[in-house]
TrEMBL record:
<comment type="subunit">
    <text>Homodimer.</text>
</comment>
<keyword id="KW-0378">Hydrolase</keyword>
<dbReference type="InterPro" id="IPR016193">
    <property type="entry name" value="Cytidine_deaminase-like"/>
</dbReference>
<keyword id="KW-0479">Metal-binding</keyword>
<dbReference type="GO" id="GO:0002100">
    <property type="term" value="P:tRNA wobble adenosine to inosine editing"/>
</dbReference>
<dbReference type="InterPro" id="IPR016192">
    <property type="entry name" value="APOBEC/CMP_deaminase_Zn-bd"/>
</dbReference>
<feature type="domain" description="CMP/dCMP-type deaminase">
    <location>
        <begin position="9"/>
        <end position="121"/>
    </location>
</feature>
<keyword id="KW-0819">tRNA processing</keyword>
<protein>
    <recommendedName>
        <fullName>tRNA-specific adenosine deaminase</fullName>
        <ecNumber>3.5.4.33</ecNumber>
    </recommendedName>
</protein>
<keyword id="KW-0862">Zinc</keyword>
<dbReference type="InterPro" id="IPR058535">
    <property type="entry name" value="MafB19-deam"/>
</dbReference>
<dbReference type="InterPro" id="IPR002125">
    <property type="entry name" value="CMP_dCMP_dom"/>
</dbReference>
<feature type="active site" description="Proton donor">
    <location>
        <position position="63"/>
    </location>
</feature>
<comment type="similarity">
    <text>Belongs to the cytidine and deoxycytidylate deaminase family. ADAT2 subfamily.</text>
</comment>
<feature type="binding site">
    <location>
        <position position="61"/>
    </location>
    <ligand>
        <name>Zn(2+)</name>
    </ligand>
</feature>
<feature type="binding site">
    <location>
        <position position="94"/>
    </location>
    <ligand>
        <name>Zn(2+)</name>
    </ligand>
</feature>
<dbReference type="Pfam" id="PF14437">
    <property type="entry name" value="MafB19-deam"/>
</dbReference>
Amino acid sequence: MLSSYSEYLIHRKWMEQALKLSESAGEAGEVPVGAVIIDSSENAIALCENRKQRDNDPTAHAEILAIREATRRLQNWRLHECTLYVTLEPCPMCAGAIVQARVGLLIYGVDDPKTGAIRTVANIPDSAASNHRLRVIGGILESECRQQLQIWFANRRHRKA
């Protein structure tokens, strides 16, 4: 839960940055998902977007790329003092990586009813298999994140027709 309006504004600011990254991914033909990781001083240490198609890499989800960048920059695989912002609820692969990286706080925009592994379809962070208790806030800029995905998928279907 959010403790104050000022906290909400901070989360909104970083989610807006993630939305810009997801827009860039969508323009490049990727599913529009963007991720930002900030450190405990609220400095951006990773800004990434989906690159699965461009890199021909099934693991090139925005969250995975952001975790790789953040751990490289911090020279530490533990991100317990970091916050990860992502526009779409992480899938099982990303949820597992988030738990393994010991991310301190995950903030996501919109639930994923097909593969969401934080709260919607599965709950990896709270499962017995998780060795890290991840704090989670969902729904930051939810309607904007949902709209962006819906428009992208509608355009994709239209082009195929």
